[in-house]
Amino acid sequence: MDRLKLAIQKSGRLSDKSKKLVSECGIKVKEGKNKLIAPSTNFPLDLFYLRDDDIPKYVEDGTADIGILGENVLLEKQSEVNTVIQLGFSKCRLSLAIPKAETYTDSSYFQGKKVATSYPVILSKYLNDKGVQADIHEISGSVEIAPGIGLAEGVCDIVSSGSTLFSNGLKEVEIVMQSQAVLIANKKMSAEKQAILDKLLFRIEAVRRAENSKYILLNAPENKVDDIIKALPGMRSPTVLPLAQKGWVSIHSVLIESEFWEKIDQLRTAGAEGILVVPIEKMIY
Ligand code: ATP
Ligand code: ZN
Question: Hey, what's the torsion of the CAs at 79, 82, 85, 87, to 10 degrees?
């Protein structure tokens, strides 16, 4: 029986969330100290712990079958792999930044300037498309200190809140790309491995849907039920149960996180009371 080899980051910003996803999919792995490979005990999958930069290559050449990494690293490495699904975590952006005191108009600012980055491939394509020739210096870490020590006049680096840039006297002037964690796969997987991947994907999708949804229970007078149901999308139609108090019902349904507050307001206007909202662990259609 074949086993699927899943590469995740050994330690870093993606590791905990990658492991959490595996665990939420009901896949148990034996954690060993400093191990490179950890087999699952209840699913045909082995975890490979690697540096995120190495994951595209390993998946391309089939050393690993699938992997979890940021879209930023995936694009930088230009490997021939399939992107299977966006995972919604480790969201960040790759941005250009310059010293706070400088005046910025547009990307022509970078013409002939020294820019430090760990993403030379993405950055040179971005600037080339804008007709700008910059002097790109590849450095592997602590990019944000480069202008302060006179190594560069600007940087292109990962940003989430912008506080690291700010504390290094820089300001973000242009977003080069948005990124989040994705699941990638080898292009020539055996049918047997593909079947394991499909099973894994089914679970990942159930976990992702649940994360984006909330279970809602509310009370309402019977004569308001139609208005309330109109405001509720849900999986099918909502459950309506009679309450002990005559003329009142309890309505149960599912709400999408992004529409949450808007829907709550609509439901209250429509006459809903005693609204309870609870997290959903898994959601299977
Ligand atoms: P490795 O040692 O494995 O090479 P690394 O130092 O290159 O790790 P990390 O800093 O752990 O990488 O970041 C891994 C990925 O997490 C990045 O490529 C990016 O996709 C994402 N990421 C980085 N910084 C943030 C952030 N501040 N917020 C959210 N996601 C981030
Ligand atoms: Zn890395």
Answer: -20
Taking residue 274's Cβ as centre, other Cβ atoms within 10 Å add up to 11
Confidence of residue 234 (pLDDT cuts 50, 70, 90): low
Tell me which of 53, 83, 90 to substitute to probe ligand 1's pocket, judged by most ligand atoms within 8 Å of the beta carbon: 90
What pTM was computed for the model? 0.90
Which atom of ligand 1 is least distant from the CA of 181? 20
Instruction: Considering only CA atoms, give the Rg of the chain.
Output: 24
137-191: pLDDT as tens digits:
999 989 999 999 999 999 999 999 889 999 999 999 999 999 999 999 999 999 9
**Can you tell me which atom of ligand 1 is nearest the CA of 71?**
20
Closest among 207, 232, 196, 284 to 2, alpha carbons compared:
196
Question: Which atom of ligand 1 is nearest the CA belonging to 159?
Answer: 27
Residue with tokens 């760990």: 118
Domains plus CATH for the chain?
4-87+181-210 (3.40.190.10), 92-179 (3.40.190.10), 213-279 (3.30.70.120)
Of the CA atoms within 13 Å of residue 82, those in its CB half-sphere come to 12
- pLDDT of amino acid 235: 61
Does residue 92 have its Cβ closer than 6 Å to ligand 1?
A: yes
Nearest ligand for residue 158 CA:
1
